[in-house]
Amino acid sequence: MEEKSAESIDQAFHDKEENIFEALFQDLGKHPVESYRDEVGIIEKSATNALNCLEKWMAPTKSRLPLLFFPAKGEVISEPLGVVLVFGSWNFPISLALDPVIGAIAAGNTVMLKASELAPRCASFLAETIPLYMDSNAVKVIVGGVDVGEQLLQQKWDKIFFTGSQRVGRAVMSAAAQHLTPVTLELGGKCPTIVDTLSSPSDIKTMVKRVMGGKWGPCSGQACIGVDYILVEEKFAPTMIDLLKKTIKTFYGDCPIDSENICRIVNTNHFERLHKLLEDPLVAASIIHGGSLDKEKLIIEPTILLNPPLDADIMTEEIFGPLLPIITLNHIQESIEFINSRPKPLTIYAFTKDETFMRQIVSETSSGSVLFNDTIVQFACDVLPFGGVGQSGFGRYHGKYSFDTFSHEKTIMQRSFIIDLEPRYPPWNDFKLKFIRLAYKYDYFNLLLLLIGLKK
Ligand code: NAD
C-alpha cells in the first residue's frame, strides 16, 4: 500500500475537514462536533492505527508443528484477495465508506467503493477527493443508485464488503454466489437495551445520558448500533422516564425541532416510513413524550413511547430513527427471553451492576456484541472486532480484524527430505494400518517410544 494510501487519507482529511463538515451538514444536518466524533475522527484514528500496526499485521505467523510432521516448519502468511467491492452507507457516509477501504488497502487489495446515493454531497466529496490523494489504480469511487449497485454486483469481485439493509444483503449474497465470491455483510436489526434497576442517583444520571447518546446521539437514531428499544422493570421505569425527559430538554432545548444538535432524517421516504410507524392508533396512544414532526425540515423530535403493542411495526421492524419504545417487565430477567424470541441483534446494551446477570446475558443470548453500561462506544474501539451474527450480518472488521477480513490466510508448510515413513504408502497391510492408527493417536516422539517399547 498501502502506507502511502493511508497517509493520503490522513492528508485528505487534514486538508478537507471543512468540506467534509459541510457535506455532512448538507446531507444529514450533522453538527461539526458530531461529524468529527463519528466520521472524521474515526477515520483519522483508523488510518493512523493501520499505519502504526501494518508491519505487525503483515508479519507471517509461525506455527510450531506437532512432532508427527517432523522435520517440517509451518507458517501462515496474509495475501491480498485482489479486487474488492465496498458498499458504503448513507448514515455515516464518510466513515462507513472509508473504514473498510483502509482495511482493504492495508491488506494490499485494490478497491471499488460504491458510495451511497442517499448522501449525495458526501458521495460527490469522496468521488472528487479520493482521486486527488490516492492512486486511482488502487482505489476508485463510484457514485450512483440501485441500478449502479445492481450492475456492480454482476461483475466478478474477489470480495464484497456490504453495509446496508438485510433486504439488499440478500441480493448481494445471491449475486456473490454466482462467482463464489466471499462476502462480509454489515447489516442492521433491532438493538435492545436492558436497563436494570439502579439505585445510585449518579449511576442513573450516567445511564440516562448514555442511553440518549445511543438513541439520539448518532445521526438522530439512524444508526445500525443505535438503541432501538429499552427493556426495564415496571417499578424503575418512572424514574428513568422522568430523567430522560429532563435530559432531552438539556440536550436539545425546549424546541428540539429547531435544535442545531439534531440531525435530520435522510430523505422524505425515510421520514414517511417513520411517520407511518407512529400512525398506528395504538402506537400513537403510547407516546409519552415528543411526537412532533417537521416534514419540511425532515426533523422528528426525540419521541418516547411506553409499551406500544409488541406486534406493531415499531416493535417488529428496525426503527432507524429518533423513536424510543420502552417496554416494561415485571422482572429484568425476562429481558433474556424477550430478546431470544426475536432475531439475533447486532448489539445488546445492558446497564446493570449485577455480575451474575451480566454473565447470564453473555451466555444465554446471541448478538454481534454486548456492551455493558454504555452504548455505541464499542464501534470506536479498534482492538475489538465489529460485526453481526445471524440476521444482523456476518464477518467482522476494525483494526487488525479489517486487515484479516480482506486477506487470505495462506498456509505454508515446508517438509524435509529426511525421514519418509513407509506406512503411508501402498501396498497396504495390517501393520501399516496399525501404524497409521498409532501415528494419529501419538505424536512422533511418543510413537517412537512406543515402537521401541519405552511406552505402553
Ligand atoms: P440499503 O441496503 O438500502 O442500501 C445500501 C446500498 O446498496 C446503497 O449503496 C444502494 O445503492 C445499494 N443497493 C440498494 N438496492 C440494491 C440492489 N437491489 N442491488 C444492488 N445494490 C443495491 O441500505 P440503507 O438504507 O442505505 O442503510 C440502512 C440499513 O443499513 C439499515 O438496516 C442499517 O441497520 C444498516 N446499516 C448497518 C451498518 C453496520 O455496520 N452493520 C451500518 C450502517 C447501516
UniProtKB/TrEMBL annotation:
Any one Gene Ontology cellular component term annotated for this protein: cytoplasm
MF terms in GO: aldehyde dehydrogenase (NAD+) activity
GO biological process: aldehyde metabolic process; response to abscisic acid; response to water deprivation
Domain (Aldehyde dehydrogenase): residue spans on this chain: 9-412
Family affiliation: Belongs to the aldehyde dehydrogenase family.
Active site: E186, C224
Keywords, alphabetical: NAD, Oxidoreductase
Catalytic activity: an aldehyde + NAD(+) + H2O = a carboxylate + NADH + 2 H(+)
Name used for this protein in its record: Aldehyde dehydrogenase
InterPro entries: Ald_DH/histidinol_DH (IPR016161), Ald_DH_C (IPR016163), Ald_DH_N (IPR016162), Aldehyde_DH_dom (IPR015590), Aldehyde_DH_NAD(P) (IPR012394)
